[in-house]
């Protein structure tokens, strides 16, 4: 098998602001694995240094470590080849790119979509949330109104930015009572701050708060002291996070868990521990989003998923648009057709 790695640079329409910083553009790696019979599968590496501490250079080096394994991999089945690459690459963001490409390759060889290879029934549309990242009241209110008009039933608001109460009041006023509001603090608070802040914000009507604090013990403590559901996000990768239930739910991501294979394994462990499970994106490109939708078809998320993030990119078509607050898997074999053109836009060099 031949491995090709291409850098992709994608601008965002506006800064994506969270407690861990502001993202204005995205560096990704497009991975192509071509088998000896000329069939290719595509994957994507989507590290986000401010979120997971992993750089593009780290992932490229990890992928290079897989080159020899893949070169001799034509006679191996997908699962054993992925295990061998996982041992070489180590970084889940690199493993995710290989995993996606191998699933895509197998689907194209067999002329089947990945969801069918996973044994899933015909996939229903996946309910997704809108994401509100504006740090000011007017911007947040405008995004909330747009989400409501577009048919979303849930919107996630970044908090831990200052003026959280004012922005959330503006969001609720613009969104009406029918739109569920989810918070994402990205671990910005201490346990005492989180408990006090969630108590103040509770009257706004909060569906859930992702990662109010960092660390499993702290999350469990906050969960025990608030009536608002609490979810793991960044802390989901900590040792023991999914073996014992520390709060209500867990947010799983393709990049963080090593692709479709790793994410589905994590979901099985999480549900066995008693968690609700839903999926989200680390500002992935369409291959990462498509992979998450195939995984969602197999596992059936318990809450709206944070996958409607492709509109945050500037100057690139959205091959997987949300309609009425729901997303469908891409048509076609493998991960789906019509995804690769996104990576060839003008600022992809």
What does this structure look like?
- With 349 residues, the chain is of the alpha/beta class.
- It contains 12 helices and 12 strands.
- It has helices at residues 49-52, 56-64, 67-71, 78-89, 92-110, 114-117, 137-149, 164-175, 191-201, 216-224, 259-273, 286-299, and strands at residues 2-18, 21-34, 40-45, 126-127, 130-132, 154-158, 180-184, 206-210, 230-232, 249-253, 276-280, 326-327.
- The radius of gyration is 20 Å and the shape is globular.
- It starts with a strand and ends in a 22-residue tail after the last strand.
Key attributes of the depicted protein:
about 350 residues, alpha/beta, 7-stranded parallel β-sheet, 3-stranded antiparallel β-sheet, about 35% helix, about 20% strand
In short:
The protein has 349 residues and is an alpha/beta fold. Helices cover 36% and strands 21% of the residues.
Describe the protein's topology.
Blueprint: E1 2-18, E2 21-34, E3 40-45, H1 49-52, H2 56-64, H3 67-71, H4 78-89, H5 92-110, H6 114-117, E4 126-127, E5 130-132, H7 137-149, E6 154-158, H8 164-175, E7 180-184, H9 191-201, E8 206-210, H10 216-224, E9 230-232, E10 249-253, H11 259-273, E11 276-280, H12 286-299, E12 326-327
Parallel strand pairs: 5-6, 6-7, 7-8, 8-9, 9-10, 10-11
Antiparallel strand pairs: 1-2, 2-3, 4-12
């Amino acid at each position: 098998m031949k491995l090709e790695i291409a850098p992709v640079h994608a601008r965002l329409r506006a800064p994506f602001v969270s407690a861990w910083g502001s993202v204005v553009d995205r560096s990704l790696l497009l991975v192509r694995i071509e088998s000896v019979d000329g069939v290719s599968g595509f994957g994507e590496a989507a590290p986000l240094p401010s979120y997971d501490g992993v750089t593009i250079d780290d992932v490229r080096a990890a992928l290079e470590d897989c080159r020899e394994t893949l070169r001799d991999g034509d006679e191996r089945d997908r699962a054993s080849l992925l295990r061998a690459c996982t041992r070489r690459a180590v970084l889940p963001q690199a493993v995710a790119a290989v995993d996606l490409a191998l699933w895509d390759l197998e689907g194209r060889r067999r002329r089947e979509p990945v969801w069918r290879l996973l044994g899933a029934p015909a996939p229903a549309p996946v309910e997704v949330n809108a994401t509100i990242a504006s740090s000011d009241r007017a911007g947040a209110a405008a995004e909330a109104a747009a989400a409501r008009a577009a048919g979303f039933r849930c919107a996630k608001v970044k908090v831990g930015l200052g003026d959280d109460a004012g922005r959330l009041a503006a969001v609720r006023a613009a969104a009406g009572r029918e739109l569920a509001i989810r918070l994402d603090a990205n671990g910005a608070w201490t346990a005492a701050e989180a408990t006090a802040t969630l108590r103040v914000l509770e009257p706004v009507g909060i569906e859930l708060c992702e990662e109010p604090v960092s660390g499993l013990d702290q999350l469990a403590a906050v969960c025990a002291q608030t009536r608002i559901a609490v979810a793991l996000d960044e802390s989901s990768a900590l040792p023991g996070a999914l073996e014992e239930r520390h709060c209500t739910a867990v947010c799983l991501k393709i990049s963080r868990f090593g692709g479709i294979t790793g994410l589905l394994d994590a979901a099985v462990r999480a549900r066995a521990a008693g968690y609700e499970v839903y999926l989200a994106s680390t500002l992935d490109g369409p291959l990462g989003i498509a992979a998450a939708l195939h995984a969602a078809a197999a596992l059936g998320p318990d809450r709206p998923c944070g996958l409607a993030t492709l509109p945050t990119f500037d100057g690139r078509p959205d091959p997987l648009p949300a309609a009425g607050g729901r997303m469908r898997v891409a048509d076609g074999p493998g991960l789906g057709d019509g995804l690769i053109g996104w990576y060839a836009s003008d600022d992809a060099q």
